[in-house]
Design brief:
about 120 residues; mainly alpha; flat; transmembrane
Length: about 120
């Protein structure tokens, strides 16, 4: 009974500390923090694999399956949100160097084509 009380006490303390820490995060940093936290949830999948070695009843198989599915969804969701955030910071302006190179290619191909056309006319 004593170990149950200690476990519950630790859980409540962790819950209170987590609420306090997350409550102090500004709104602009909330999404990056959560996307990183979700991608770190890969440790949940490692835990599922470790616990799956001890499963012997149909109920434990169902709970392990649910934990694996929810953990995988959280990991994938973290990477998707992170990818969307990084897309916001990409430049929408085309690079000047790339445009210059593509213009040079177009000009040289047009010159080559016009020279071929003139040679065919003669």
């Amino acid at each position: 009974m004593n170990s149950v009380v200690i476990a519950i006490t630790l859980f409540i303390l962790a819950l209170l500390i987590g609420v306090e820490v997350i409550g102090k995060v500004p709104a602009t940093l909330h999404t990056p923090l959560m996307s990183g936290a979700n991608s770190i949830h890969g440790i949940v999948i490692v835990g599922v694999v470790i616990i799956a070695a001890e499963a012997h009843s149909p109920l434990s198989y169902v709970l392990i399956f649910l934990a694996a599915v929810l953990g995988a969804m959280n990991v994938v969701g973290g990477y998707v949100v992170t990818d969307r955030m990084l897309e916001m910071f990409k430049s929408s302006k085309p690079d000047k160097g790339k445009d210059k190179a593509s213009q040079d290619e177009q000009a040289s191909s047009l010159t080559t084509e016009s020279a071929k056309d003139q040679g065919a006319d003669k």
